[in-house]
Automatic annotation (TrEMBL):
GO terms for cellular component: cytosol. The keyword Transcription applies. This is DNA-binding transcriptional LysR family regulator. Keywords: DNA-binding, Transcription, Transcription regulation. One of its GO terms (molecular function) is DNA-binding transcription factor activity. It holds the Pfam family HTH_1. InterPro entries: HTH-type_LysR_regulators, LysR_HTH_N, LysR_subst-bd, WH-like_DNA-bd_sf, WH_DNA-bd_sf. Belongs to the LysR transcriptional regulatory family. Residues 6-63 form the HTH lysR-type domain. It comes from the Bacteria.
Length: 306
């Protein structure tokens, strides 16, 4: 028997009559006429090829076959109601899974803080963080490995939208006993002769691009390149070298006892952006979290984001 021969309305009418022991009572609970309910039950009995109710002038009661059929019918309606609630949750951004990519510092600080705040509003939305190198953020959004990404400004091309969340100066981080810590502000020329460690090829390229036109003898070059900013900050905390990084890494640099010094002439500003796909539509849950995350990042506490 094809399941398409059943209708949910027929099952609703049957269960309502079984509960009310009355066609008129069932009609009232369903907002239908008694004749309409009677017709729905009759249609269902025709499809099933057995009688569901024993009818008398005073009472409607389940037949033996109707008693056997009632449980499965109620189960079907409960599952349908669950499906309807799930659809409502998805539609209203109340449930779903969202994947967010971010480099180490943002993946371990700003993004989890934003998730915690969002869970108070949408507890059934699951947000998963994927820590990614800076140079993989845009590609991850474009190919669908993540729904959203947060990180320093990168070229996007087609298929990915970039919205600037906040600016963060490119600064020097060093131990308090480091010679460069004695000065409130530094010029790039002041860095020459001091050991610098860069975190990742993205940082190394950024430092090189800052002085691409400088004479070869005056360029600032890192003595070492490590994979993660946490490693560079750890080296700096021991006084083995200083490191250049955006000011927002202060959320992990300051607890290590590192000092921040502005570097001027020129002063370089790093933009932190939210990346979203344009070639595909985000799920309602991802759209909702993207809006929340954008607002959160723009208001991220000064010690972490400025």
């Amino acid at each position: 028997m094809a399941l398409t021969r059943y209708t949910l309305r027929q099952l609703e009418a049957f269960v309502a009559v079984a509960e009310q022991h009355s066609f008129s009572g069932a009609a009232q609970s369903l907002g239908l006429s008694a004749q309409a309910v009677s017709q729905l039950v009759a249609e269902l009995e025709t499809v099933l090829d057995f009688r569901l109710f024993d009818r008398t002038t005073r009472r409607v009661s389940l037949s033996s076959a109707g008693q056997d059929f009632l449980g499965p019918a109620e189960t079907v309606l409960r599952h349908v109601q669950a499906v309807d609630r799930a659809a409502s949750d998805v539609r209203n951004r109340a449930a779903g899974i969202v994947r967010v990519g971010a480099p180490l510092v943002l993946a371990g600080t700003a993004v989890p803080a934003a998730i915690r705040a969002y869970q108070a509003l949408r507890p059934r939305v699951v947000v998963r963080v994927k820590d990614l190198p800076v140079d993989q953020l845009v590609d991850a959004v474009q190919v669908g490995d993540v729904d959203l990404a947060v990180g320093p400004d990168r070229p996007t091309g087609e298929g990915v939208r970039c919205d600037v969340m906040f600016d963060s100066r490119w600064v020097l981080w060093c131990a308090s006993a480091h010679p460069l810590a004695r000065r409130r502000r530094l010029r790039w020329a002041d860095l020459r002769g001091h050991a610098l460690v860069a975190a990742g090829r993205d940082h190394e390229r950024s430092v090189s691009q800052m002085h691409v036109n400088a004479p070869e003898g005056e360029r600032i070059e890192p003595v070492d390149v490590v994979d993660n900013i946490s490693t560079a900050l750890g080296i700096a905390a021991q006084g083995l070298a200083a490191t250049l990084a955006p000011a927002y890494v202060g959320v992990i640099a300051k607890p290590l006892g590192l000092e921040m010094r502005r570097v001027i002439e020129p002063e370089i500003v790093r933009k932190v952006c939210l990346y979203q796909p344009t070639a595909r539509k985000l799920s309602p849950a991802a759209e909702g979290f993207a809006q929340h995350l954008a607002q959160w990042l723009r208001n991220w506490p000064k010690q972490g984001a400025r």
